[in-house]
Design a protein that fits this description.
This protein is α/β, with parallel strands linked by helices. The protein has helices at 2-10, 12-29, 47-55, 58-76, 87-113, 117-121, 124-128, 136-157, 177-180, 183-186, 188-205, 209-213, 219-242, 269-289, 299-302, 325-341, 402-407, 441-449, 469-484, 536-540, 544-573, and strands spanning 247-256, 306-310, 345-354, 362-371, 378-383, 422-425, 428-434, 454-458, 488-491, 498-500, 506-509, 520-529. 48% of the residues lie in helices and 14% in strands. Strand 7, helix 18 and strand 8 (454-458) form a beta-alpha-beta unit.
């Protein structure tokens, strides 16, 4: 039977069938990610990809895994169609090579590690009669090395060419609270390691099932189960410890304005946006300050004072300090609310900074502005550091100006220069991420290193009104809370306005359902760590990548030695 399958795989129909099955399996793997959230699928959904590594030579593994990964990334990033129809195709071609390179390298390691050079010299027929990875150490090295290699490539993908740490394998496990606690030490890559390790272990186990049924241990699978069990045990312990952290309450009014995308507003859209945000803010402030308490002992008298009102990223589509009539009206109306209720506002807005290098004499930035003074003066601000390539700027456009005309979207923002937490209330220092940059661990880590005890995300996902991009965006950012042991207060334009605890648990949402969309004006009371200590991850960053790289190297070195002995012996025979 096995021989018939091998012969069929060599036919044109067999090859086509295999590639079609890989394409389908890659597309189905998307169901494990936020939007559908079949997170258990993540633990088995990569087995077809791993079987490619275990049964193909490096060249074939590259092509087959490219197919699997192309359909995975095309479907996972299909929400990009709401910007432009060809973008999911381009994204798939951009990301598929990372998986293909992993499969090619892992297949080479497997080929030169599962059998000794002496056995390989005796021919393929001889090797087919042997048990793969008969030496337990070789199987364990391959398992851990291939998983480590995957994580190294995920890390490379996170920074190369501006970086895209979006929908890493760990994102499938955002609901798995005990497991994600290891992010305090490993960052998001530790969770990815567990996922790919278990998929590879299961794929390696399939040919060993007859031996396992007869009672023989298969050490790679035993190793994987032990590592996962230890990780979960450590996660429960870390969770209990984190729950004992002393906190203080911080109350913030949150405006979820649910406005359509209006970067370049038509007449009336800017005025409508300002009216909606002001009305929702006024609703919060009236409920807070104009409700008459029943008695001096009523809850209204005992609750923590409201510290700030927060608006999402660029809710009003004109700069707060702009020179137009709408910007002037923006300042006047916000100033009136501040004067009347003595409550600061934190708003997302475009802002300017003088520059000696810009031909315009100033840089335009995507910022979060803290406004406390009755006259509407800006007290402090944070400017987005990690901009969206092609959306907020065009990479290398200064060197190649034609790129701006070809692929630009009419905006060339300048990045912020520092991670400066904003003190939004006495003792509450908020490290702010603006939209896309919340997916980048280094941004929140930078704020934590500079003294933040609360993380904030101001986001605007109005570009994606019908897709699952907001769900993915939220889940990719959730890991920042555990990495730094700081709560997250997230303010979205249309959805996912919520509070995430420092253990990664969603504690409160602006609307009843986690993924509900619509307008909301509410007050969150967030428990903020009183005196947070820097986590291992905050102190040392992605040092675990060095460990994963070492695991890959420990597998590659003996594979290289076997390959060299095999080549030398072949030359001697010839």
């Amino acid at each position: 039977m096995m021989n018939k399958i091998r012969m069929f795989r060599l036919t044109k129909l067999g090859i086509l069938t295999e590639y079609l099955l890989l394409a389908g399996c890659g597309a189905l793997f998307t169901l494990a990610f936020p939007g559908v959230d079949w997170n258990m699928l993540a633990w088995i959904g990569m087995i077809p990809l791993c079987l490619v590594v275990l049964t193909s030579n490096p060249g074939a593994a590259f092509l087959k895994s490219f197919t699997w990964s192309w359909f995975w990334n095309f479907t996972a990033f299909y929400w990009l169609r709401e910007i432009a129809a060809p973008l999911p195709i381009g994204m798939a071609f951009t990301l598929a090579p990372f998986t293909a390179i992993w499969a090619c390298l892992a297949a080479w390691i497997r080929k030169n590690l599962e059998f000794s050079a002496e056995d390989r010299l005796k021919g393929a027929t001889h090797c087919s009669e042997l048990k793969p990875f008969s030496k337990p150490l070789a199987g364990i090295l391959f398992l851990l090395g291939s998983a480590g290699l995957w994580c190294v490539l995920e890390w490379v993908r996170s920074w190369i060419f501006t970086g895209l740490p979006w929908n890493l394998l760990a994102a499938t496990q955002w609901r798995n609270i005990p497991l994600i606690q290891i992010c305090e030490f490993t960052g998001i890559y530790g969770v990815s390691f567990c996922v790919i390790m278990m998929n590879m272990a299961l794929a390696m186990t399939i040919p060993q099932l007859p031996n396992i049924i007869r009672g023989k241990r298969f050490w790679p699978m035993v190793t994987a189960m032990l590592i996962l069990a230890m990780t979960l045990f450590a996660g429960f312990r870390l969770l209990k410890r984190a729950e004992k952290i002393e906190t203080v309450p911080f109350r913030a009014g949150i405006v979820q304005c649910d406005l359509t995308q209006r970067r370049n507003p038509v007449p009336g859209q800017g005025e409508e946006a300002l009216e909606v945000c002001i009305d929702l803010s006024r609703q919060i402030l009236r409920n807070e300050f104009e409700a008459i308490p029943v008695s001096l002992d009523s809850p209204a008298k005992k609750k923590t004072p409201l510290s700030v009102i927060i608006w999402p990223e660029t809710a009003v589509p004109v700069p707060y300090r702009g020179g137009g009539s709408l910007s002037s009206d923006y300042r006047d109306q916000l100033g009136d609310l501040i004067s009347r209720y003595k409550t600061p506002f934190l708003v997302g807005s475009l802002d300017y900074e003088l520059s000696t290098t810009s031909p315009d004499g100033y840089d335009l930035m995507n910022s979060a502005l803290l406004i406390k003074e009755p006259g509407g003066e800006i007290v402090d601000k944070f400017s987005k550091v990690h901009l969206v390539p092609f959306g907020e700027y065009v990479p290398y456009s200064k060197e190649f100006p034609a790129l701006q005309q070809m692929v630009g979207m009419g905006r060339d923002l300048a990045p912020g220069k520092r991670f400066n937490p904003i003190e939004v209330a006495p003792g509450i220092k908020a490290g702010i991420s603006v939209c896309f940059e919340s997916a980048f661990p280094y941004v929140s880590r930078g704020h934590a290193l500079n003294g933040a005890n609360l993380l904030m995300i101001l986001s605007n996902d109005a570009w994606y009104p019908t897709s699952n991009e907001p769900e993915q965006h939220f889940a990719n950012a959730l890991f920042r809370s555990v990495e730094n042991r700081l709560p997250i207060l997230r303010n979205g334009n249309s959805s996912h306005t919520l509070w995430i605890s420092h253990t990664g648990v969603v504690r409160k949402t602006a609307l009843p359902g986690l993924h509900d969309r619509g307008r909301a004006a509410t007050v969150f009371t967030v428990e903020v760590p009183k005196d947070p200590k820097l986590t291992f991850y905050a102190r040392f960053g992605n040092i675990v990548i060095a460990l994963f790289g070492l695991l890959a190297l420990l597998a590659a070195v003996p594979a290289f030695m076997n390959w060299k002995m095999y080549r030398l012996a072949q030359g001697t025979k010839e």
